[in-house]
Amino acid sequence: MKNSSKEIVEEHLEISTKPGEMASQIQKLVETLQKNKKDILALKAMLFAGIILLMGGFFYYNNTVQQIRMQALDANSHLRQSQGDLNTMAVQKGIFQEIQSLKTAVDSLARKNAAGNGNYVEQAVVGMNSTLTLLRDEPSKVRELTLQVQRTSREFLKSYQTHNISTSNK
């Protein structure tokens, strides 16, 4: 309130010399002070109610925002999983196509060998090595493995040819 207790007393209490008037003035003063106490109490109650309402609104807002974020996160994770599934399917399709092309090359070599074009083992190893050269554009790990297989197959072919030469001379 704007007025302090002293100001209220000065405002409502006009000092008079008569005791009856003084008693009525004091009574008015007491009533004014009680009214002011009630007003202050009402204002405090309204303030606390406002604070409680603000806190309730704040917690409700935070809860709602958190639920919306969780829903968005869930939708985002489903989207990422769908994208991952699509990527996996694309990789599988690419690998399947590579396997098909290698199978075609192997089938072609098998048909050549079936036609009776010389030694089948030598042709198969040579055909395998030529098929492995198709993998030269693969990642380094695959490239290293194909080179290792090619070296091993060349060594096998040399020892096979050496063995065939020594058995044919006997």
Describe the fold and architecture.
- The chain is mostly helical.
- It contains four helices and no strands.
- The chain has helices spanning 5-12, 19-114, 120-132, 140-169.
- The longest helix has 96 residues, at 19-114.
- 0% of the residues are buried.
Short key terms for the protein model shown above:
4 helices, mainly alpha, 2 domains, single chain, 170 residues
**Topology, number of strands:** 0
Order of helices and strands: HHHH
Rg, rounded, reads 49 Å
Number of domains: 2
How confident is the prediction overall: mean pLDDT? 82
Beta-strand level of the residues, as a percent range?
under 5%
Number of discrete helical segments? 4
The parts where pLDDT drops under 50 for at least 5 residues are none
**How far apart are the first and last residues' alpha carbons, in Å?**
127 Å
| Helix-strand makeup class | mainly alpha
Shape: rod-shaped
Q: Level of helix content?
A: over 70%
Major sheet, described briefly?
Answer: none
